[in-house]
Amino acid sequence: MSGFLKADLLDGIPHGFSTSIGLEADDIARGAKLMCPRQIHSATVVIVDEPWPEPPQADALVTARRGIALGIVTADCAPVLLSDAKAGVVGAAHAGWRGAVGGVLEHTVAAMVSLGAHASDIKAAIGPTIAQGSYEVDQGFREQFDNRDAPFFAAGRPGHYQFDLPAYVYQCLSDAGVRDIEDLREDTYAQPHRFFSFRRATHRGEETGGRQLSVIALPV
């Protein structure tokens, strides 16, 4: 049995964000070839023109080809699915804090534009992600960001902050020219019976290999 969430904003576009129950590509786009990169927390984006024999190292994919489903996996980082339905271009991005700071979302939008999309026509959905109340970071982490990013950090215990990754991702998308953005507001850390969470598993000394799969494809 598969379980997945959908974004209202992407209605009409085959897509889904899995829970810990799982997700199959055929649940989203029957017969489509699922393409997933070897994720490395980078800002690298790959344009998928045809199925590849070996997955490239990247953290985002875009395509204008039907019959191809784009997938990324996450377990606290933000899965972002994007679509310009008018141009017939979709994208999927894995936005952890490193990739987001490095520009993975801006690069994803730029790659979609290179295929004929328009940033103002792109709709983006942020899937299950660790929320600010669950994401404690230290001073060293804070120093990876500019002073202008202060609104994404709330004061925590001494020497620590609570980082709002979904809000930061939202801002990156907005800065890239995306106007229509939906955040599903699902905290991976706080829902152990619903989502895998790398941070929660680490804190509990549990197996950390579980991942959610997020998939998007063009309608046939």
From TrEMBL:
<keyword id="KW-0808">Transferase</keyword>
<comment type="similarity">
    <text>Belongs to the purine nucleoside phosphorylase YfiH/LACC1 family.</text>
</comment>
<keyword id="KW-0479">Metal-binding</keyword>
<dbReference type="InterPro" id="IPR003730">
    <property type="entry name" value="Cu_polyphenol_OxRdtase"/>
</dbReference>
<keyword id="KW-0378">Hydrolase</keyword>
<keyword id="KW-0862">Zinc</keyword>
<dbReference type="InterPro" id="IPR011324">
    <property type="entry name" value="Cytotoxic_necrot_fac-like_cat"/>
</dbReference>
<dbReference type="InterPro" id="IPR038371">
    <property type="entry name" value="Cu_polyphenol_OxRdtase_sf"/>
</dbReference>
<protein>
    <recommendedName>
        <fullName>Purine nucleoside phosphorylase</fullName>
    </recommendedName>
</protein>
<dbReference type="Pfam" id="PF02578">
    <property type="entry name" value="Cu-oxidase_4"/>
</dbReference>
